[in-house]
Amino acid sequence: MAASEGGARADAMSSVRHAPAAAPVWETPPPLSGAAKRLMIYEIIVVFAVSLGASALRAFVSLIGSLTEREALSAQHVVMNGSQAPGRPLYDLILQLVSIATAVAPAFLAFYLLARNGEGPSSIGVDASQPGRDLARGAGLAALIGGCGLGLYYLAFHAGFSLNIVAASLPDVWWRIPVLLLSALQDGILEEVVVLGYLISRLRLIGVSPWSAIAISAVLRGSYHLFQGFGPFFGNAIMGVIFGYLFLRWQRSNPMIIAHTLINAVAFIGYTLLVGHVSWLP
């Protein structure tokens, strides 16, 4: 009996290792077998339980806490990039770098799991095969979505649906801008590899329709921003729909990684340079 069960487990693991790679654009991939499909679903759950799914749960609890405060949402604030060791700049730098390195780790877990399935980073469009096109697409997306996103946040904040987002509050030391750039890059890699390329391609493998996969990815993207309020939830969910559609159309994650990095870099550094000098920043 034990040998039979061991053989079944081995067959299931073999099925996952040799599962069909994600099909291009809107094509439906060949269906996984029952055991392989169950293991793939379990894999997706585990990946998000230790990464952005856990972040979504914490963000939801944080929003409940903010809603039950006596102050309105717009009277509260959340710091995105703050000092981790005030008054100790060198130690603060070390903690910042450790936080960035550990936060991006789930993206490498996703790459490992893709490799176990016979795929590489290029299967989700993370490679250097189209540098010029990726950069142009990413810059264009950043300009379009970044501007619209700032306007949406401004309206949501003044309508009382969002917290005051302090994009950066690091001490005025030599490493402040480099750390903000690394933080922006970390966000871009983590979110676009895990919640875009990995998640949508895995959902397609287990038979989820293209638009359903885009919707799941977009709602998840919005949910781990709930700690910032309702405005950022909807704004990021809309961005997730756009990114998801373009990912399936282009089969590339790189443009979205570039766009996300540019959006956050401008937000973090722009806030640092402008806060206290312009009247429209809260």
The overall pLDDT, averaged over residues, is 90
Number of strands: 2
Biggest pleated sheet: 2 strands, parallel
Helix vs. strand class: mainly alpha
Number of domains: 1
Low-confidence stretches: 1-6, 8-17
**Strand neighbour order, sheet with most strands:** 1-2
Count of runs of 4 or more consecutive helical residues:
10
Strand content: under 5%
Shape: globular
Radius of gyration: 20 Å
How many angstroms separate the termini? 67 Å
The percent of residues in helical segments reads 55-70%
Element string (H = helix, E = strand): HHHEHHHEHHHH
Structural write-up:
The chain is built from ten helices and two strands. The chain is mostly helical and 282 residues long. The chain has one domain. The longest helix has 30 residues. The N terminus is likely disordered.
Descriptive key words:
globular, 10 helices, 67% helix, 282 residues, mainly alpha, single chain, two-stranded parallel ribbon, 2 strands
In short:
The protein has 282 residues and is mainly α.
Question: What's the layout of helices and strands?
Answer:
Elements: H1 2-17, H2 34-49, H3 52-67, E1 77-79, H4 89-103, H5 105-116, H6 131-158, E2 164-166, H7 176-205, H8 210-223, H9 230-250, H10 254-274
Parallel strand pairs: 1-2
Helix pairs in contact: 1-2, 2-7, 3-8, 4-7, 5-7, 6-9, 6-10, 7-8, 7-10, 8-9
